[in-house]
Amino acid sequence: MPQRTLPDLPWISRSEFSASDEAPSEVALTPDELRELSRRMQMIREDERKVIARELHDELGQQLTALRLGLMHLQLDATSQQPELKPAFEHLTRQLGATIAMSRDMVTKLRPAALDMGLETALEWLVEQFQRTTRISCRLIQHCHQLELDDYTAIALFRIAQEALNNIAKHAHATDVRIVLHRTEDPMLLMCIRDNGIGFEVQQKTQSSYGLIGIRERVSTLNGQLYLFSARGQGTHLEVQLPLENS
User: Fold this and answer.
1) Checking CA distances to 21, which of 52, 77, 218, 246 falls within 20 to 30 Å?
2) Are residues 163 and 78 in the same domain?
3) Which residues contact 190 (CB under 8 A, 6 or more apart)?
4) For the chain, what percent of residues have pLDDT higher than 70?
5) Strands 176-183 and 188-195
């Protein structure tokens, strides 16, 4: 398949998301109250992910490791007397190994350890994982270093990038992806995610994509702005603008 370069996207299709797009609630909450409520719900969700990931790693991980050691000893004793049992033990060992790998993958998906090392490190890990699992070229370009962000902001930006890459892997048919972090003098933090995929009609997609709706909600809780640029055959450019004084 020939490689496609990233084109200059025409800024003719633009959709800006804001909290005002949400349907009115029966309880008359202000936009600030809605943002705070959504922020707290996201924090609760992340705390739950962290707890479940820790329990899977500590409790289930220890049990599976002990089971593997026990199976190894049992295999040595049994096959020394009954060699014909060796294929059955090898099959069980492979199944147990796959289960251990699956549990580790679940822990990573719930709460990557790289999140505890800052946004830049977490995004580097995300890019590496994306390339390894999809074989799609992906680069992280940082025009700012050692960002001082609170935990919620860092995690929210990581989840936004994670969801955007998931969408690219599933729908874009892209061969090249770039994630750019840039700090302006305002000060604003810009995170841009761009691919050279097939693109789509923005207005149609944003009303039906749960992934984009989730991204919009996260950006809203950060008092930021979300812009989406795309056109058929021209790839997609997603941009988050975040005021740093609120992070």
Assistant:
1) 246
2) no
3) 180, 181, 182, 183, 184, 239, 240, 241, 242
4) 85
5) antiparallel
142-194 pLDDT, tens digit per residue, is: 988 778 898 889 999 999 999 999 999 999 999 999 999 998 888 899 999 99
Asked if residue 198 and residue 130 are part of one domain, the reply reads: yes
DSSP-assigned letter for residue 6 = P
Q: Residue 148: exposed, middle, or buried by beta-carbon count in 10 A (0-12, 13-18, 19+)? A: exposed
Paired tokens of 127: 């890019």
Residue 208 is encoded by which pair of tokens?
């039906």
Structural domain of 52: 46-110
For 20-66, the pLDDT digits (tens) are: 455 554 557 677 777 777 777 777 777 787 788 788 878 888 888 89
Query: Is the pLDDT at 6 greater than 70, yes or no?
Result: no
| pTM attached to this predicted model | 0.70
- For residue 187, is the peptide bond before it cis, meaning its omega torsion is within 30 degrees of 0? yes
Give the Cβ contact number of residue 116 at 10 Å: 12
Number of domains in the chain: 2
Report the distance separating Cα 32 and Cα 19, nearest Å.
9
pLDDT of residue 134: 95
- Nearest alpha carbon to residue 152 among 54, 239, 30, 38: 38
**Residue 177 sits in the same domain as residue 162:** yes
**Packed helices 151-167 and 210-221: angle between N→C axes, nearest 10 degrees:** 160
Residues in contact with 208: Cβ distance below 8 Å, sequence separation at least 6, in sequence order: none
